[in-house]
Amino acid sequence: MRLEQEFQVAVPADRVWAFLLDVPTMAACIPGASNVTQTGDNSYDAVVKTKIGPVTANFGCKIVVLDLNEATHSGAVEVSGRDGRIGGGVKARMDMTMTEAAGETSVRIVTDVDVLGKIGQYGHGMIAKRADAMFDDFVACARARLT
Amino acid sequence: MNQRMKLTVNGKDRRVTARPDAYLIDVLRDDLALTGTKYACGMGECGACTVLLDGEPVFSCLTLAIETQGRAITTIEGLTRDGVQDPLQQAFADRGGVQCGFCTPGMILSARALLDEQPHPTEAEVRRALSGNLCRCTGYAKIVESVLTAAEE
Amino acid sequence: MAEVDDAFGFDEPIQPAAYLGPTSLDDALALLAEHGDEAKVLAGGQSLLVFLRQGLLAPSHLIGLRGIAELRRLEATPDGGLTVGAMVTQHTLETSPLVQARFPALADAAAVIASPPVRRQGTLGGNLCHADPTGDPPAALIALGADVEIARAGGSRRLPVEDLFRDYMDPAIEADELLVAIHVPPPAPRSGVAYLKYRLRGVDTALVGVGFGATLAEDGATCADVRIGLVGAGTTPLRATEAEAVLRGAPLTDERLAAAARAAAHECAPLSDTEASEWYRREMVEVFVRRAAQVALRRIDGGNAA
Lengths: 147, 153, 306
Description:
By secondary structure, chain B is of the alpha+beta class. In chain B, 33% of the residues lie in helices and 16% in strands. Chain B folds into two domains: 3-77, Roll (Ubiquitin-like (UB roll)), CATH 3.10.20.30; 87-152, Orthogonal Bundle (DNA polymerase, domain 1), CATH 1.10.150.120. In chain B, a hairpin with a 2-residue loop joins strand 1 (3-9) and strand 2. The mean pLDDT of chain B is 96. Chain C has three domains: 18-63, Uridine Diphospho-n-acetylenolpyruvylglucosamine Reductase, domain 2 (2-Layer Sandwich); 74-184, Uridine Diphospho-n-acetylenolpyruvylglucosamine Reductase, domain 3 (2-Layer Sandwich); 191-298, CO dehydrogenase flavoprotein, C-terminal domain (Enolase-like, domain 1), CATH 3.30.390. Chain C has helices spanning 25-35, 48-53, 90-95, 97-102, 104-111, 116-121, 124-130, 137-144, 241-247, 254-267, 278-298, and strands spanning 18-20, 39-42, 61-64, 74-76, 82-85, 147-152, 155-160, 165-167, 170-171, 178-184, 191-198, 208-216, 223-231, 238-239. In chain C, the strands form four sheets. Chain C has a five-stranded antiparallel sheet with strand order 4-5-10-6-7. Chain A binds chain C through residues 52-55, 62, 64, 78-82, 84-89, 91, 93, 116-118, 121, 123-126, 128-130, and chain C through 1-12, 14, 40, 51, 54-58, 131, 167-170, 235, 271-274, 278.
């Protein structure tokens, strides 16, 4: 499933770039994320807790940052998460691009996500809706930190 | 943490010790060796696990064994009495309603409940009563015919 | 891609849930007060036991309501309304002469849920608390103007059924609370209510479902009141208030009904999934609001709008 999301923030691209690459700070804006620890130059572990209906999933996530291009402010992140109790997981690749105009930065994120195991039965409509809601929360938090 | 339960299956009291949240299908098949009741989807979609509970068709994969205590459970094994088959069983054999056989126990128990409430159903009523039982061979015509044949007798 | 080790596997076996079988409402509420956070209430089990079997939930206790006789009452109230105990089964509702005669929209909704074996065990209270956005009874009950009664140890509250649905499968019921009854008001003079379901296969949940209830003014043509409930049209069952506003106080002409149907299709927020796209669901909301309105209006005694 592909999710395409975009947000604008009224600060220069350099600042947005620095914020997004500071994974522990950035991750504090991800709803339900905790225990972010750096495990390598470009890799992190984190736990992301999310609740859909009566079901609460705790994804143990591995995050790898790759393909960074500072000049064009573009990059990609791979996330793989698994909940061993309920038996299911997600794999995602997020590609990010930024454009700056008149002091405002527009960030576009395209995510290809595979939902694995039993969590998949919710259907991609519900999962996309939840991802959009989490993204909105993330953007509100990121704006507050940046401006 | 296991719990003792007394179930009344096909007219006999049976004692089992099982998890308090054990499903009826698992107790029937694994503890009581009544494997005529089939397990397939485990989520109430297919009807293979249909049994009768106080005469009503229910999915044994969506029923806790502990909640069936004190109620009469009928499985496909309970329809044959003293070696004599239920007219539905005979009709399924005679009219080609069995096919691969996997859905047959559930089909016959749903049909038994229908005929007990309504001895002479229309074809539409038969189809409605069997709407929770899927046949993977997709040979519904012979199944419906078998039920109507049994109803005539 | 980074690898996920065995995304389908389990880390640990799921601990058995203890079973508690209270025989009175007071006992059930006391157990909920004690165990509510970690327990799940087991009504007919036709949704919860799927989740449990798949290991999506691991409650410490199951509080089974089978033994509580007062939750099984189904009775007319003195003013002509209906009280449905939370544990009344869909089969009971679809076959009840009282419900068929006085509240046919509720009987119709119960009759199209899943399959006969599910309806034998599945209950109205359980259906509402599961809060599946594609369940059938919520749309019918919204159109009927029903309230739900929610109890906790030492008190109870009532709320309109449309306010029960907080989010996807997330009813507005706290951990120590129990939905005990559904109260349907008496049908108003010159009123009719219908529920229509659209689905692809006989035992499916609703692709779209519409409950439509209308009351005519004394002139027999003007819409005095209207209630429209939608399922399959968002992350929760919805009340289509914008569509209702198009009709309330207006003559119930075909043009008005068509405009209301368009408003309903506009105000809802369907999900896209493998069964149908958001666009298709909106189109079907529009079609089925019109059709449900026609059935509801035909059910009005003495009305000439249909």
